Amino acid sequence: MHSIYDAVIVGLGPVGAVFANLLAKRGLKIAVIERTAAVYDKPRAIVVDHEALRIFQAIGLAGYMEGAIAPHNGTQFLGVDGDIIKIFDPMPPPYPLGWIPNATFVQPDAEKALREKLTGYDNVQVFLSATGLSLTQDKSSVSLSVRRDDGDEFTLRARYLVGCDGANSLVRRQIGAGLEDLAFDEWWMVVDALTSEPNKRPAKAFQYCRPSRPGTFVPGPGNLRRWEIKLLPGEDPEATGAPDNVIRLLRGFTDISDLTIWRSAVYRFHALLGERWRDRRVLLMGDAVHQTPPFLGQGLCAGIRDAANLAWKLALVLRGDADDGLLDSYEIERKPHVRAVVASAKEFGTIIGELDPAAAAARDVRLRADLKSGKAVTVRQRFIPDLVSGLIAPDARLAGRLFVQPHVRGPDGAVRRLDDLLKPEFAIVSATPEPMGWMSDVSHAGWQQIGGECVVIATSGEPSDRGGILTVVEGESLFADWMRQSAVAAVIVRPDRYVYGGAENAAQLNMLVRHLLQNLHAGRQAFQEAALSVPPS
């Protein structure tokens, strides 16, 4: 255990496990410590979105997730009188990221699959039943002292340490990072039940916006059904969670004759945002640095986005293709994104949880009018923002947007999701071969230096892989339409599949390549200055 790791990860919950898999797949030498011996079995996340599913795909778990998820068929908000006041409909096809936009899943099963995947790597060491005690860092490494449950103590040294250790994060306390309170604090009970009659209830989620007792219903995969029930002022969280009380409250929402209660828990729903996500060689992600109320189904998705954002940056820095300052772009990109998502989740939580009957009646009138006039946004994905700063080309088209993922035919003739044919590196992508000839010798050399790919996604012709250009053919025109609507000829796509920027011509493409290569080595100043020029969300 005396060797130095590329990274030590504290916490093997879902976010730590996703992050560990992403680093392991890139060949980094990592150690993971986790307090508990087994996957946590209480009800937590139940919704994942297409961006999170794409990240599971990057880990190599597409097949598993395809079999494990069920479509999330939208949500109806019901007012005081039980009629609809607000709607979230599923995003219609074609699905831009190659996955259904919102799905339900069973978190403990997904965590087991993530851990199972990790066991296939020789470059990963996992220490279960092991607790971090304290950390110190110097100019070249960070050291973590660890105690196993059997009393054995040891030290792990790494180039970087990432705290994925949840709301009560030791790592966050060790670096003295505070949390900004975004003013949401409510107690809710979450009940997961198994039904013997899967067709008894609609295959839709419902928000019961009733002041007498607000609640939520989410149909999960298979026979899993979830209810979230708000505690009223003066109700004791511990007493409320007692088994006979769980049944009493559940009866207020549904006939329970077909249900077996699998598990229940009382949670305090918070809105918090870390003030600092990094201290030199130590970084924070997931619940350790942000907590959101669950009313947008984005808590776990936010942590998975953190993991995908940081993994490739850490790999680039460790292999010498970027300066350590690149890691500052992690907080600069993710923090405003999380802030915006939390604001939306809070807004929906406030709509659902209103306890004042007069205010609730006024809310119903207002929301019904918005729905009738077409003013209300009815697609949940619209509340998920793009990147607004960091390692993107600020004035370029498409900068900060998620890159589409069509199904394509590759050189071997098989049809797959696009990412499965790409390396986890930067890519220049176009719809025709012509823009690939626009790159100057300098651009080309720099592109090769960072392991960048050149990809043509055509709508006809034959796939091939020659002359340093991968050509694939899409069956539908998802990519071609997206490029046409954006009026660009080529896009530079980051390893996490966010767009660095789009180019309309040769001069723009070479300028974007030059800027990107400079920014990878610009140091933290460049990102901090870029962040200062962006208004807060």
Topology:
Blueprint: E1 4-10, H1 14-25, E2 30-34, E3 47-49, H2 50-59, H3 62-68, E4 70-71, E5 75-78, E6 84-88, E7 102-104, H4 107-118, E8 124-128, E9 130-137, E10 142-148, E11 153-163, H5 170-174, E12 179-195, E13 205-208, E14 215-219, E15 224-230, H6 237-240, H7 243-251, E16 259-274, E17 278-279, E18 282-284, E19 290-291, H8 299-318, H9 328-353, H10 357-373, E20 407-409, E21 415-417, E22 427-430, H11 441-449, E23 453-458, E24 464-466, E25 469-474, H12 478-486, E26 490-493, E27 499-503, H13 506-520, H14 524-532
Parallel strand pairs: 1-2, 1-11, 2-8, 5-13, 11-18, 22-23, 23-25
Antiparallel strand pairs: 3-7, 4-7, 5-6, 9-10, 10-11, 12-15, 12-16, 13-14, 14-15, 16-19, 17-18, 20-21, 20-25, 22-26, 24-25, 26-27
Helix pairs in contact: 1-2, 1-4, 1-8, 8-9
Q: Mind explaining what this structure looks like?
A:
This protein has 537 residues and is of the alpha+beta class. It is built from 14 helices and 27 strands. The strands form four sheets. Strands 1, 2, 8, 9, 10, 11, 17 and 18 form an eight-stranded mixed β-sheet that branches. Strands 6-5-13-14-15-12-16-19 form an eight-stranded mixed β-sheet, sandwiched between helices. Strand 17 and strand 18 form a beta hairpin. Helix 1 (14-25) runs parallel beside helix 4 (107-118), helix 1 (14-25) runs parallel beside helix 8 (299-318) and helix 8 (299-318) packs antiparallel against helix 9. It is globular and about 70 Å long. Mean pLDDT is 94; it is low at 531-537.
